[in-house]
């Protein structure tokens, strides 16, 4: 799933796919985006797409619904 993290703005990285013969072809390291419901400042809820790592951080801080 390509795209950007809606909270931190992270995007996919690029690199090389390497064969056994060390041939290099371009590839993308896409983000592991998840839909998470976040509590807003006024007490409402909003669904955002964040990386799995940031979803764990939000859960740890108690900001998810």
From TrEMBL:
GO molecular function: structural constituent of ribosome
Alphabetical list of InterPro entries matching this protein: Bacterial_rp_bL28 (IPR050096), Ribosomal_bL28 (IPR026569), Ribosomal_bL28/bL31-like_sf (IPR034704), Ribosomal_bL28_bact-type (IPR001383), Ribosomal_bL28_sf (IPR037147)
Region entry Disordered, spans: 1-21
Pfam families according to UniProt: Ribosomal_L28
GO annotation, biological process: translation
SUPFAM superfamilies in alphabetical order: L28p-like
GO cellular component: ribonucleoprotein complex; ribosome
Keywords tagged on the record: Ribonucleoprotein, Ribosomal protein
HAMAP family: Ribosomal_bL28
Protein family membership: Belongs to the bacterial ribosomal protein bL28 family.
Database matches in NCBIfam families: L28
Protein name (database record): Large ribosomal subunit protein bL28
Organism of derivation: Metamycoplasma orale
């Amino acid at each position: 799933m390509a795209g950007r993290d809606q909270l931190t703005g992270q995007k996919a990285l690029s690199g090389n796919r390497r064969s056994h013969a060390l041939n290099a072809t371009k590839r993308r390291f896409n983000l592991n985006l998840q839909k998470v419901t976040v509590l807003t400042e006024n007490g409402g809820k909003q669904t955002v797409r964040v990386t799995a790592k940031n979803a764990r951080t939000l859960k740890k801080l108690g900001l998810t619904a």
